[in-house]
Amino acid sequence: MTRRFSNxxxxxxxxxxxxxxxxxxxxxxxxxxxxxxxxIGLDPIESPxxxxxxxxxxGQPVAATLTFGGAGASSLIDAYSDPLGSQVDVEGGALTxxxxxxxxxxASSPFVFTVTAEASGYYTQTRTVTATEVGGIDFELPMxxxxxxxxxxxxxxxxxDGRVQxxxxxxxQQTVTIQTQVNAEAQATxxxxxxxxxxxxxxxxxxxxxxxxxQIRAYDPSQGSVxxxxxxxxxxxxxxxAVIGGIYFLMTDGSGQAAATFTDAGSGKNGFxxxxxxxxxxxxxxxxxxxxxxxxxxxxxxxxxxxxEIWGYTPADAANNQIGxxxxxxxxxxxxxxxxxGGTLANVDLNNLGDVAQGAFFTLVMPPSVGTSAxxxxxxxxxxxxxxxxxxxxxLEGPGMYANRSLSLPGSTKxxxxxxxxxxxxxxxxxxxxxxxxxxxxxxGAPESTSIADPSSGAATINLxxxxxxxxxxxxxxxxxxxxxxxxxxxxxxxxxxVSVFYRRLPTGAPKVIPNDENVVKDTDQSTYIRVEAQLxxxxxxxxEFTGVLDNSQAVVETTAPAQANWSITLDSDDVGINCGN
Length: 582
What we know:
The protein is mainly beta. It is built from 5 helices and 41 strands. It is elongated, with a radius of gyration of 27 Å.
């Protein structure tokens, strides 16, 4: 019998069952008393915690190492009521644990801890988890893949170029402009101009020579903003910034040196080829981002004149420093911002960048003078015509703000703050006079939206329409032994207080859903099966993926939603370490 975690867990692109267990060393007990059946029994954990780590681009679970911190970390426990520990490896992207029953979260005394995920090929992500009431707690960590020039990332456009040639002294021979192409996934494009006569220097002051490879990627203020590394959206104090656009830039030579700063050859530039205003004023490098996002355009037009801050995030050392500022310009139906290094129009000091070995993210940030920083305490009520949970998404979008989350929309009526619906905490920068939209998209139904002026205060209600494609199922998900066998470990009635169900529709449904506590009808344990029953919505004839999770082991089943209202799912108990025998 393997040691395992339990309690409900949110799993991207899955449905799973989590079980509570006792504070016993089962294997040792079996060795000593192998003629007895061990009973799993534990006082119910009042606040189970569920976490999932997934790839932001694909939605697939990511194996990661999670590190826990903050004031509440010492009160986190595993399914055996033992301390969870400061670090846990999550192989299948999902983890379940709990909060000690001695802790009673409330609005006046919230329970708070931090969780940091590290995984190969991804930027490190940290999430602050806050609970203000006793009951199920869940969090998700969407992992941003490290920049790949060939990758398709929502909200971005990219380009790579090898035309820049530098002589043996490092002087660029001809002005070269590199531009990302407009695509349906992004509301921003970027252009980089490297001027003739420019010398790119590494962090050690060595010139880059020969053929230079350049990568650029534009990040729009909506979906692109969540595709930025987390550190690129945080100020020095750790608060969220209103990032209205960003450009990733990396220039390397054949020896792998990365450009950190730029100078000239000292003998004047050639002055030919296509160039921008920065180059004409004697600049060395010009980066321009063009943003067509309507919310940003409306905000800049309403404010009249905005001088955006320019910040530079370097993933090699996770430094994010303000390096300059730029006057935003309205050009037709777009807003433009420029990063200019060198010359009379220079507006950045690249010496303030961190380690550029993995490139740099230049972000345009709304200045403090045009808004306020506050938590997302707007109260949102969602009226769901179904009495069962419906998988869906919630999106908050506005000037310099974009947050999106897949969730289970509760049956009937539920009121929460935007922060609670979105699973976020901390302060967000809110632009004065801006317009923000909240959109609820139920799976199989029509999206419903409302516009608000301030996501930090106020209240609104969104009424969902009935989704004709869905029906309410009584779903029975169970671990079941083959006929003639039974579990080598028995489970008593108090062990299943943390059971919950997760699922997703294939291939394009909400990537992760968890029914609410009120939708779990009952859980049952026998010597041959462990079963959870819940009221859930689904689309008949559609494929769904179910996953059972115990500790870090998983059992996965794909099945088609039936025409009738009863839906049974059987998961392989061996896959999660529950052995069946005679």
